[in-house]
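Case study.
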Amino acid sequence: MDTLVWIFISAMVVNNFTLFYFLGLCPFMGVSARVSTALRMGAADIFVLVVTAVFTWILNTFILGFAPHLRLISFIVVIASVVQVVEMAIRKLSPKLFREFGMFLPLITTNCAILYLAIFQTNRGYNFLEGLSFALGAGAGLTLTLVLMAALREQIEFSSVPEIAKGAALVFIIAGILSLAFMGFGGLLSQI
Amino acid sequence: MRGVWRENPVFRQALGLCPALAVTSTVANSLAMGIATFFVLISSSLLVSVFKRIIPHEVRIASYVLIIATFVTIVEMVMAAVVPDIHKALGAYIYLIVVNCMILSRQEAFASRQPVGRAVVDAAGTGFGFVIALLMMGGIRELLGSGALLGVNVFGPSFEPWVIMSLPPGGFFTIGFILLGFASYRHHRSSRVMKRSLALDPQKVT
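After joint prediction, the assembly is written out as follows.
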């Protein structure tokens, strides 16, 4: 149980996917302008991450032992098809939820965080529960940073920023400061 | 060839940001990552352009991803065999070349519509631009973060390294300030153009 909690916390804040591993930066820049969209994107992220973790575990346990060199290709195919299937299922089961997620689901295929999760999980040799906890933590971390950044950007809209700093440059510098702050969580890991 | 500088994939189009920030803590890593991406980009552009009539429109993205994944697997195996140290330092980021949106966007926007020769030239331009961007980031971060370039000490022993530049926040700060520099350059140039046109035609003020 202890390990599961630590995997969750470490993936969420200490080794945060966005601020520590620089994963999922495209959606981080793209959809972090409003808190409401950031929350939806985060929810979609968590969902796809968990489903991917399950499929990665199945692949690793039953199939890839026989063909390790096909790892990357099968992961990317699985992720792309999982996203596709999830999109169709949501559209069928809950059109309301589908409208809420909108264009975010297909975007997730090219989110490097998902592929990284699959590879990381394999390299660390996580079992089923550990993988799930890792995926939940990573998703929670992505959501946390997206919402933090969106809230900051909503505030910035009303403050006077130098003309040249508007846009990507400012977002990156804010991300740097956030990343500095998150490094403080590193102390959590040295406690054990 | 506009991809080299005027439409630089990293600084102007904000594509391929994850590797540009993640592996640029030293020049050597940046160079290795740049060359690997360059190779994958050129080979997949070549293949996509050759097969553009055979690939059905509906499954084109999936086919591009498969082609890219194949070349990434090749690069990964070659690097593991030839430069095991760098292979270890880059870690899982080599695999992440597959989801580098820069590569996919070149296939979709260019290689799938153009003849082979032009596709390769375009890929070379974009790939070269990517290498330059990575080297700029890597150069700044290694110079400030450890006072060295390619492991050779530059500033002498009295230099106190800015450790933060080699750590993750440094990556965000570096690209933030590079973009700031570009924006300020553009701003100055456009205001100069404005002044000149005002001098020629004072009526334009309104």
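Observations recorded in class. The interface with chain A takes residues 14, 17-18, 21-22, 62, 65-66, 69-70, 72-73, 76-77, 92, 95-96, 98-101, 104, 164, 167-173, 175-177, 179-180, 183-184, 187 of chain B (CB under 8 Å). The CA atoms of residues 40 and 71 of chain B lie 6 Å apart. We will return to this complex in the next lecture.
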